Amino acid sequence: VCQAKLCSHCQKLYHEGPCSGRYEMILEITKACGHAVPCPYCLNIATKADEGCDHVKCATCKNDFCMYCAAKREPTLIHGNHYHRPSCKHYYSYANWAKEKPS
After folding, report:
1. I need a surface site. Which of 28, 42, 48, 102 has the fewest CB within 10 A?
2. What is the number of other CB atoms lying within 10 angstroms of the CB of residue 79?
3. What is the 3-state secondary structure (H, E, C) of the chain?
4. Per-residue burial over 49-64, b = 16 or more CB atoms within 10 Å of its CB, e = otherwise
5. C-alpha distance from residue 85 to each of 33, 42, 64, 67, 72 (Å)
6. Nearest residue to 47 via CA among 61, 100, 85, 33
7. What per-residue confidence (pLDDT) applies to 68?
8. 3/52 Cα distance (integer angstroms)
9. Low-confidence ranges of the chain (pLDDT < 50)
10. What is the pLDDT of residue 101?
């Protein structure tokens, strides 16, 4: 009996990291769609819930994250937008937030 383990996504021999070509395929799909992104946690396609918000909830793994920088949503809601990556349009530095924070 064969004891080989297979990847549950690509059905090739088990490997660490994303499947070869899978991430690139998902990126092509999401670029064409415009309101979907690859989930950084499970690599399935996640879509925006509505046009007024830039956070995404993955239907597969249930993670909420920013569609631009993949920052997890919960820490940004609790602690502020300095949890986004500096290149993200939603990023706001902690230093600026601390200066403007009401006493």
Report:
1. 102
2. 11
3. CCCCCECCCCCCECCCCCCCCHHHHHHHHHHHHCCEEECCCCCCEEEECCCCCCEEECCCCCCEEECCCCCEHHHHHHHCHHHCCCCCCCCCCHHHHHHHCCC
4. eeeeeebbebeeeebb
5. 24, 20, 15, 12, 11
6. 33
7. 85
8. 49
9. 1
10. 61
**Would you state the pLDDT for residue 1?**
46
Which is nearest to 23 in space by CA: 34, 13, 12, 37?
A: 37
Q: Which two tokens stand for residue 4?
A: 């080989």
Residue with tokens 């499947």: 19
Neighbouring-strand partners of residue 58: none
Specify the residue for token string 């993200």: 88
* Pairing assessment for the beta strands 55-57 and 64-66 based on DSSP bridges: antiparallel
Half-sphere exposure at residue 62, Cβ-oriented, CA atoms within 13 angstroms: 0
